[in-house]
Write a structure and sequence with these properties.
Layout (H helix, E strand, L loop, with lengths): L1 H15 L10 E4 L2 E4 L2 E3 L2 H5 L5 E2 L5 E4 L10 E2 L5 E4 L15 H4 L2 E4 L19 E4 L3 H4 L3 E3 L5 E3 L9 E4 L11 E4 L8 E2 L10 E4 L9 E4 L8 E2 L10 E4 L9 E4 L8 E2 L10 E4 L9 E4 L8 E2 L10 E4 L9 E4 L8 E2 L10 E4 L9 E4 L8 E2 L10 E4 L9 E4 L8 E2 L10 E4 L9 E4 L8 E2 L10 E4 L9 E4 L8 E2 L10 E4 L9 E3 L7 E3 L10 E4 L2
Parallel strand pairs: 4-6
Antiparallel strand pairs: 1-2, 2-3, 5-7, 8-9, 10-12, 11-12, 13-15, 14-15, 16-18, 17-18, 19-21, 20-21, 22-24, 23-24, 25-27, 26-27, 28-30, 29-30, 31-33, 32-33, 34-36, 35-36, 37-39, 38-39, 40-42, 41-42
Length: 540
C-alpha cells in the first residue's frame, strides 16, 4: 500500500511538469535565480519589475529592456523592463506640472545643459531637471516694465500682462534745470517748465542771484560805504546789498601814522582804523637788486630806493664780475683774446680775458699741416706743438655710401673729403627689391607690377610687386549681389567670379558693442553686426 501511494504522488508530480523537463529536481541558486533542471525560474519580484506605483502609459513612454533615452524609475513595467520616456521633437511642448515647488517659487524647470544664471533649491517633478529662476529679458537688457511708456517701447518678453518693456526718456526735475519749487505768489523770477512737475501745485521758479553771488555782503544801509547793489533775491531784515570795499592791503599798502608815511598816501574804500593813513609800500634796496654799503666802497651806480638803507649806508648797484661776462681772470701777458671790463675788477691786478674758442669748438681736430686734408681753421686759442686745426672731413659712410671697386659700383660715385682706402671708389648705396617691397621671381610667374631697383635680382629674375589679397585689404570674397559695402580691387582676384567686399565692423567705425539700454551715444548699423542682443554704440 505504501509503494502504490508513493507512485501515485510521483505520477501526479510528473503530470504537472512542463514538457522537456526531467524528473530530477536539481536546483541551484545563482544571482537570485532558481535553476530547475535546464530552465531558469525568475522570482516573482523581478518578473513583475515594479519600480513605482504609477504605470508606464503609451502617452508617456514605453516599457523596454534597454533604453537610450531618459528612464523614469517611478513608473512600473512588467518582466524586469524599464519605462523609457518618449523623445520630444524640438517644436513639441514640454509637459509641465503647473503646481509644483519650483513654479510656486517663481522658477522654471530646465535641463542641466541649459544656462541657469540663478539656480533655486526647489525640486522639479522630473528628477533630471533643475529649478532655475525666471530671467526677465526686458530688465536684463537695461529696460523697465511699465504700464505707460513715455519713451520708446522694446520688443522683449518678461513683462506681466498689462505692462510693456519701455526705455524711459530722461525726465528733468526742477533743480536740474536751475529752479526751485515755490508757491506762484512767492515767485519773483521766471517760471520754468520741467518734465517732472513740482508737488502740491507749486511752480518751478528760476533761481535768482543773491547778494553773495554778486560778490557783495548784506549790511545796514548806514554802514554801507560802497555801492548798493540790487540782486533778484533781496537781503533779509531790511538790509541792503553792499558792494565789498577794498582795504589798504588790497591796494598793497600798510596802515601807519601819517608822520611816518614815507611814500604816497592811498585812499581805500574801507579806511584804516584809529585814524591811521594807508601808506604805499616803498621799495627797498633789495627790490632794486642792490646792496647797502658804505659810499666809499661803492664801485657801481648808487640807487635811490623809497626806503633808504640803515646807518647812513648807500644802496650800491650789484656789479658784474668777470664770470658774468664769460671771461677768466689772468695775467695780462697771458691774455690771448680781448680784455673785458667788469664793474667788479679781478683780484691781484689780473685782467679779465675773454674766453677764446678752441679747435674742438669749431668742430676741428689738431693735426700736422701736411696730414690736413680739409680746410684749415683758425681758433682764438691755437693748437699745441705748432699743429694746425683741420676741419673734420666727411667719410664715405657719412654720405651713405660704401667703398667698393669702381668696376663693381652700380650706382652713382660719391666724392667724400676723406677718400676710401686702397684706391676704392665711394659707391652710392642702391635700393634692392626688398627695399621697394617686392619679391624676386621669374617674370612668367609675376602677376603684379614689375619694379626696377638699382640693384637687380640675381639669376635674371624680375622684381615683382607683392600681391595684395582680399584678406589683406580687410575684405571678404562674396557674390556681387550680396555685397552691400564698397568693392575692393586687390591684385589677386577672388575665385569663382566673386568680388572683394569690404567688411566694416563696429570697431572700424570707432564704436563698441553694447546692450541697447546701456548705450548713451548714437546707435549705428555696420556691415558686420554685433552679437545677438547688442548694438554698435558710438560714444559721445
Amino acid at each position: 500500500m505504501m509503494k502504490n501511494e508513493i507512485n501515485e504522488k510521483e505520477q501526479k508530480g510528473n503530470s504537472k511538469r512542463r514538457p522537456g523537463e526531467t524528473g530530477d529536481k536539481k536546483t541551484s541558486r545563482r544571482n537570485g535565480k532558481k535553476r530547475v533542471g535546464t530552465k531558469i525560474q525568475i522570482p516573482d519580484k523581478k518578473r513583475t519589475g515594479k519600480q513605482g506605483s504609477i504605470k508606464c502609459t503609451k502617452e508617456y513612454g514605453r516599457c523596454r529592456s534597454k533604453c537610450r533615452g531618459d528612464i523614469d524609475k517611478e513608473r512600473a513595467c512588467p518582466n524586469g523592463k524599464v519605462c523609457c520616456r518618449k523623445r520630444r521633437t524640438r517644436n513639441q511642448a514640454i509637459v509641465k506640472a503647473k503646481n509644483n515647488a519650483c513654479t510656486g517659487a517663481g522658477g522654471v524647470c530646465k535641463k542641466p545643459n541649459k544656462k541657469c544664471k540663478q539656480p533655486l533649491s526647489f525640486e522639479c517633478p522630473n528628477k533630471d531637471r533643475i529649478c532655475c529662476k525666471k530671467t526677465n529679458k526686458c530688465t536684463s537688457n537695461g529696460f523697465k516694465c511699465v504700464q505707460k511708456c513715455r519713451g520708446t517701447t522694446k520688443q522683449f518678453n518678461g513683462c506681466k500682462q498689462g505692462k510693456v518693456c519701455c526705455k524711459q526718456a530722461k525726465e528733468m526735475t526742477c533743480k536740474q534745470i536751475g529752479g526751485n519749487c515755490k508757491e506762484e505768489a512767492k515767485c519773483k523770477t521766471e517760471i520754468l517748465n520741467p518734465d517732472k512737475k513740482c508737488k502740491d501745485a507749486k511752480v518751478c521758479c528760476k533761481q535768482g542771484n543773491n547778494c553773495q553771488a554778486l560778490g557783495a555782503t548784506c549790511r545796514k544801509e548806514a554802514k554801507c560805504n560802497g555801492k548798493i547793489l540790487t540782486p533778484s533775491v533781496p537781503c533779509k531784515n531790511g538790509r541792503v546789498c553792499c558792494e565789498k570795499g577794498n582795504k589798504c592791503k588790497d591796494l598793497k599798502g600798510t596802515c601807519r601814522e601819517e608822520a611816518k608815511c614815507d611814500g604816497k598816501i592811498l585812499t581805500p574804500s574801507i579806511p584804516c582804523k584809529d585814524g591811521k593813513a594807508c601808506c604805499e609800500k616803498g621799495n627797498r634796496c633789495k627790490d632794486l637788486k642792490g646792496t647797502c654799503r658804505e659810499e666809499a666802497k661803492c664801485d657801481g651806480k648808487i640807487l635811490t630806493p623809497s626806503i633808504p638803507c640803515k646807518d647812513g649806508k648807500a644802496c650800491c648797484e650789484k656789479g658784474n664780475k668777470c664770470k658774468d661776462l664769460k671771461g677768466t681772470c689772468r695775467e695780462e701777458a697771458k691774455c690771448d683774446g680781448k680784455i673785458l671790463t667788469p664793474s667788479i675788477p679781478c683780484k691781484d691786478g689780473k685782467a679779465c680775458c675773454e674766453k677764446g674758442d678752441k679747435c674742438k669748438d669749431l668742430k676741428g681736430t689738431c693735426r700736422e699741416e701736411a696730414k690736413c686734408d680739409g680746410k684749415i681753421l683758425t681758433p682764438s686759442i691755437p693748437c699745441k706743438d705748432g699743429k694746425a686745426c683741420c676741419e673734420k672731413g666727411d667719410k664715405c659712410k657719412d654720405l651713405k655710401g660704401t667703398c667698393r671697386e669702381e668696376a663693381k659700383c652700380d650706382g652713382k660715385i660719391l666724392t667724400p673729403s676723406i677718400p676710401c682706402k686702397d684706391g676704392k671708389a665711394c659707391c652710392e648705396k642702391g635700393d634692392k627689391c626688398k627695399d621697394l617691397k617686392g619679391t624676386c621671381r621669374e617674370e612668367a610667374k609675376c602677376s603684379g607690377k614689375i619694379l626696377t631697383p638699382s640693384i637687380p635680382c640675381k639669376d635674371g629674375k624680375a622684381c615683382c610687386e607683392k600681391e595684395t589679397t582680399c584678406k589683406s585689404l580687410n575684405g571678404l570674397c562674396k557674390q556681387e549681389a550680396e555685397c552691400e559695402s564698397k568693392v575692393l580691387s586687390p591684385s589677386k582676384e577672388c575665385n569663382a567670379g566673386k568680388v572683394c567686399c569690404l567688411v566694416r565692423t563696429c570697431s572700424d567705425r570707432g564704436g563698441k558693442c553694447k546692450k541697447e539700454g546701456n548705450c548713451n551715444g548714437r546707435i549705428v548699423t555696420v556691415k558686420k553686426p554685433c552679437k545677438e542682443s547688442k548694438v554698435c554704440c558710438l560714444g559721445k
